[in-house]
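Is this the right way to post structure tokens for a design question? Let me know if I should format differently. Anyway, here goes:
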């Protein structure tokens, strides 16, 4: 038995009230708010704590928040009007939509513009290869239109429209190899493209690496309810959807609504008894062995059925305690990419959780575009981790 979260009509989206919230504090008082027309202030207590811990990535976090929020706006527009022609298949046979390309172009453009004096490095999922083909002409035209409309909807910026060639070049800024030196942005413009196409969960996932470590992460989850996803039934519920998770190293994780409500600090579940824990796994069985998760859950005595959710929305939901465990076991030989986990990983870690591979090692984002890990990914709170790792390792041995 399992719970599949989603299956909502494509028309269910968040209406963004673009001008709804204007920060009332000055920039010098709260650098976290820099140039964010669609932002709202984190609680004062939070700002004070951040100041004590570290101020060093505040500007980058503000830029990431703006970039991911604008990209989410583009994605919501496309998901509402999803047409068959908006979907293409990449050479690795995964679907990619105009929204994946458009969101990557928007984020890449905003980030590079925000920090003109530092070398720009972006490790991102998409590239312009297929878009440069003759048969993609119309698609490229549509993406360029979407990108320009989205950038123009940001009332704080005054830029001239991008040409189709500008868009291709901007997408290809994401070809960086990352690595252990310097700073690199890491972007999944739409994580959970299959969920996006179904009208279910997806996320715009953006992180910053500094010397190989994730130092900030933003997850925009346009279809995630502001209340717990486990109790959420889109067919009967009128709960508001659209969440933004923001995390900075040593400064905690905050969640706000995508339309700009006040940010609140979030914490992972405090559950210590595995029998009371519920767990998340991929919606797509091809992405993670549901059988292995089920045998682990049985060993732990977990009673609740797994919640199957697309994308890094799982990390966001776990960071606020909707569920206590996230298990991911791709088929042998599958290489995990850093953009599928960087933002989610810091969102959970700063909310008090732990993310490791099946061997209990922390994820290493310093190796380039891929993660080099032992068997799978395991996420939970500090108290449950030892028992969970034992059950994971025993189940893998028995397989
Ligand atoms: N075979 C296989 N095994 C494991 N993982 C794979 C596989 N194929 C794809 N992917 C990656 O999974 C990303 C989607 O994340 P999830 O598995 O969490 O969500 S979902 O259940 O697929 O909806 C998805 O991210 P996006 O491509 O950004 O959607 C992929 O990077
Ligand atoms: Mg993909
Ligand atoms: Mg992905
Ligand atoms: Mg993607």
């Amino acid at each position: 038995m399992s719970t599949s979260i989603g299956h909502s009509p494509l028309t269910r989206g968040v209406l963004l009230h673009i001008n709804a919230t204007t920060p009332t504090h000055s920039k010098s008082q709260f650098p976290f708010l820099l140039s964010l027309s669609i932002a709202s202030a984190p609680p004062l207590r939070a700002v004070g704590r951040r100041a004590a811990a570290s101020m060093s990535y505040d500007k980058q976090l503000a830029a990431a928040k703006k970039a991911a929020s604008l990209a989410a706006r583009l994605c919501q527009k496309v998901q509402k009007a999803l047409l068959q022609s908006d979907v293409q298949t990449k050479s690795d046979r995964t679907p990619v939509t105009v929204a994946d390309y458009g969101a990557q172009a928007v984020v890449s453009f905003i980030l590079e513009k925000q920090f003109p004096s530092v070398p720009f490095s972006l490790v991102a999922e998409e590239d312009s290869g297929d878009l440069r083909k003759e048969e993609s002409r119309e698609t490229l035209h549509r993406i360029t239109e979407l990108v320009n409309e989205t950038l123009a909807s940001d009332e704080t910026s005054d830029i001239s429209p991008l040409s189709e060639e500008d868009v291709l070049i901007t997408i290809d800024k994401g070809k960086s190899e990352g690595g252990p030196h310097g700073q690199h942005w890491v972007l999944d413009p739409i994580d959970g493209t299959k969920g996006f196409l179904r009208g279910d969960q997806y996320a715009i996932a953006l992180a910053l690496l500094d010397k190989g470590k994730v130092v900030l992460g933003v997850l925009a989850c346009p279809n995630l309810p502001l209340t717990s996803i486990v109790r959420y039934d889109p067919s009967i519920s009128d709960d508001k959807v659209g969440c933004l998770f923001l995390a900075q190293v040593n400064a905690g994780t905050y969640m706000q609504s995508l339309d700009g409500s006040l940010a609140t600090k979030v914490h992972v579940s405090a559950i210590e008894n595995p029998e009371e824990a519920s767990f998340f796994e991929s919606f797509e069985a091809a992405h993670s062995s549901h059988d292995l998760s089920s045998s682990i859950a049985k060993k732990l005595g977990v009673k609740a059925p797994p919640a199957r959710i697309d994308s890094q929305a799982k990390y966001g939901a776990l960071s606020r305690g909707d569920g206590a465990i996230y298990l991911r076991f791709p088929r042998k030989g599958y290489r995990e990419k850093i953009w599928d986990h960087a933002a989610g990983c810091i969102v959970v870690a700063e909310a008090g959780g732990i993310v490791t591979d099946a061997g209990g090692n922390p994820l290493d984002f310093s190796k380039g575009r891929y993660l080099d890990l032992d068997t799978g990914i395991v996420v939970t709170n500090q108290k449950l981790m030892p028992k969970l790792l034992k059950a994971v390792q025993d189940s893998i041995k028995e397989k």
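Format looks fine. Someone answered above. Worth noting: The first helix runs from residue 44 to 53. The radius of gyration is 20 Å.
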